[in-house]
Amino acid sequence: MERQTVLEAAVSIIIVVGFIGVLAVLTTTYSTDGGIGPAGGYALVASLVGFIIVMSGAGLTLTRMDTEDVTSEDDTDGSDEGSSDPSA
Prior knowledge:
The chain is mostly helical. The two termini are 38 Å apart. The protein is built from two helices and two strands, in the order αββα. The protein has a domain at 36-62. Keywords: Membrane, Transmembrane, Transmembrane helix. Residues 66-88 are annotated as: Disordered.
């Protein structure tokens, strides 16, 4: 597997495991009489929104890192493709 693929998988797994841990803590903290009260419901929804934001941010960051790697590899290949200098 490529380094970038392994990094993406590892980051995703860490975030998902963290989210499951947050859900477990919230469930045990807010469970009353076999159910979850309104405060627990709000906490679960907030954790879901937080998970979506964190996962989106991680995906955006990883995509930008991958794009920068490709751009730097293209710049160092020594070719003059795309050069605006007509004498090249």
